[in-house]
Amino acid sequence: MLVQPASGSEHAQATVRRFVPKGMMAPFVLVTALFFLWGVPNNLNDVLIRQFMKSLQLTRFQAGLIQSAFYAGYFLLATPAALLMRRFGYKSGIIGGLCLFGTGTFLFWPAALAGQYWFFLLSLFVIASGLAFLEVASNPFIAQLGEPETAARRLNFSQAFNPIGAITGVLAGTVFIFSGVELTPAQIAAMKVAKTYSSYLRDETLRVVDPYLVIGGFAFLMAILIWRCRFPAVATESIQGSSGNSGFKYLLRYPHFLTAIFAQFMYVGAQVGTWSYFIQYVQDYTHRPEKVAGYFLTGTLFAFGIGRFSSSALMGKVSAARLMGLYSIINVGLLAVGVFVPGGAGLWTIFLSSFFMSVMYPTIFALGIEGLGENTKIAASLLTMSIIGGAVLTPIMGLISQRTGSIAHAYVVPLTGYIFVALYAFWGAHLRPLRREHS
């Protein structure tokens, strides 16, 4: 009996089924929406760094602690999140994460009234603790919600909504947090004499409250929607406890996963550092006002978003690892211009680096958890913990900037990060397990 070849329409439908299986569209859409949601506060930090340098009179190093507090939440809560989800499942972890996230945003109100920097850092830590739950759950859930061959494409597609959230966050911060008032030293001195400077600083600090209250409201709304949605059991939940080969020690058998942790650490440090000081770079080397610099940052996030969507399409023709390796090499060249040719040319090369960095986080994640079976949740938590790279490398950039007097020199840090991502793409991702497991 001859088998007729599938028509173009049937082939397209089969492709869709492989990408998102039947009956899983609702949870896929809701979890994908979370990628948008957590992109908003992630990149509002870049606005906060500039705003708090002004309203709380911080140095660049002190302002860089915003990212340290934020990513410390990811680091410390990722493993507890994974352990809880091994017991209660992805859905419970997502709902708990959204409630923590919303609580942290609401803490911005008393923090602003108190005018204390440590209170803001605590609020950011609580926000990031909630986001740790969301990332530990959402990334592997999306990767496993279908056939393994399409995991990297599926995760890149969902992650593509993260920069849309980032753009929304930076744009909202630029419009609603930045007042556009930048005082000269003479104006500050005059306001101090008139005893109005403290009132000005307080008003600038309070500008951060409203955007965070709105974000918190959306977080609690999403928690309700996900609570009411029926979630399927994905592969690792349905086989949980089947072999007993689960736990941290078993992950040591997978060098492709271990190298993914370091690659992710360096990538996140490169990404966070690039965006954290981009506004300052624009102001230092092109002398644009803060609002214009904020719009430049919004533009680079648009490039990031375009990169995510286009890379998801390109992965139908080019392997995920090879594409990431090529993009990493391109970014090394772009950042080299930003470091050694500061000014208009450097601004635009750093701007374009966001397009090429876009593929890296989801691709490292998908390649890192490939083939880990029931160890996936623990592996996801460790990959999420590697986000601590943002907390470590961003203050280092601030220190380099202070010591050298040049924010351009600080961009050697993300440049180095892309070198390590390239090494992972061409070498680390292809390492095989050290020995076979026996059931």
Can you tell me about this structure?
The protein is an all-alpha fold and 439 residues long. It has a single domain, classed as Up-down Bundle (Growth Hormone, Chain: A). Helix content is 78%, strand content 0%. The protein has 23 helices and no strands. Helix 8 (161-177) runs antiparallel to helix 16 and helix 17 packs across helix 19 (360-368). The chain is globular. The protein starts with 7 loop residues before the first helix and ends in a 13-residue tail after the last helix.
What's a concise summary of this model?
The protein has 439 residues and is mostly helical. The chain contains 23 helices and no strands.
What is the H/E string?
HHHHHHHHHHHHHHHHHHHHHHH
* Shape designation: globular
Label the CATH architecture. Up-down Bundle
CATH class call? Mainly Alpha
How would you name the oligomeric state of the polypeptide chains in this document? Answer: single chain
Distance between the termini: 40 Å
Number of helices: 23
Strand content: under 5%
What is the assigned CATH homologous superfamily? MFS general substrate transporter like domains
Low-confidence stretches: 1-12, 238-243
Give the proportion of residues in helices: over 70%
Number of domains: 1
Which class of secondary structure composition applies to the elements? mainly alpha
